[in-house]
Predict the structure.
Amino acid sequence: MRAFAVLLTSMSFLVSAPAALAQTSGAADPADPQQSSKKSGKKETTTSSGAASYGVDPDAPPRVFVAGTIAKRMANWYAAAPAAAPAAVQEAVFAANEIVGMPYRYGGGHASFEDTGYDCSSTVSYALHGGGLLDAPMPSGSFMTWAAKGKGRWITTYANGGHMWVNIAGLRLDTSAAGEPVSSGKGPRWRKNLRGGSGFVKRHPRGL
């Protein structure tokens, strides 16, 4: 009789051991979604809007591509990046989309890339930074000696002491509506047309 009792005790231990082992070893409990998430290997980040996400910003503009080498201005003010362009060019387009439609503010976007308004040079700086081509915002005067001389294959900045803009893959990013047949408003915008560069110094990122 005593041997039978010992056998029952041993069987009870074998049944309960896996559950106890799971708790002591730190294994994830499938019934605990919070614990499962912590073990998923995903790194929690903070988006530019301040919202927490796992590598995805739900408020980011859509990343749209268009065939060929020329960027396309879309009806919603955003631009589609050319599929045949280098990755740095595509990322510069998508970065600019993040601030398109925001108000013009003199000095805005210079203390930090993240701001509530942008002027001409900080708009260009933001786009170039998104493409990995600029580490910190610069004023228009500094762009007059930036990078390489002349027009680039993919990106060209136009700058003087008072204003600047950039052409990226054949599309103009400018805070001024100068030359537009119908004004798109003041502030960071993809404009409907290019504009003459008389009186502006042309520069481009090396290799682009």
Notes: Residues 2 and 8 are 10 Å apart (CA to CA). The chain has two domains: 2-41, 65-204. Residues 1-55 have pLDDT under 50 and may be disordered.
